UniProtKB/TrEMBL annotation:
InterPro entries: UPF0145_dom_sf, UPF0145_YbjQ-like. Belongs to the UPF0145 family. SUPFAM superfamilies: YbjQ-like. Transmembrane segments: none annotated. It holds the Pfam family YbjQ_1. It comes from Sphingorhabdus lutea. This is UPF0145 protein LPB140_11830.
Amino acid sequence: MLVASTHHVEGRPVKEHLGLVTGEVIVGANFFRDIFASVTDFVGGRSGKYEKVLKRGREEALYEMQMEAVNLGANAVIAVNIDYGVVGSKGSMMLVSVTGTAVRI
């Protein structure tokens, strides 16, 4: 399945718009990862633990969106947008939300 953030795929015109598709994933942050991230923030550098969580959340949300598109008979999703947010008490969980337009090209 072709997934693109653009509204058009060069050389492959949209034959049919099938509707909006989404994927949402909420991933929890845990105490040990938070402590590690705090130390990383203090000394500088990247927080690999959080990056792995965000990557997993993004991949799962994209997969969920693609499966919704397949169920509509799409072979591509265009105009894809990925958003991140913090939810839960004290921001204890991260939300990854993906939206796009399911199409047949």
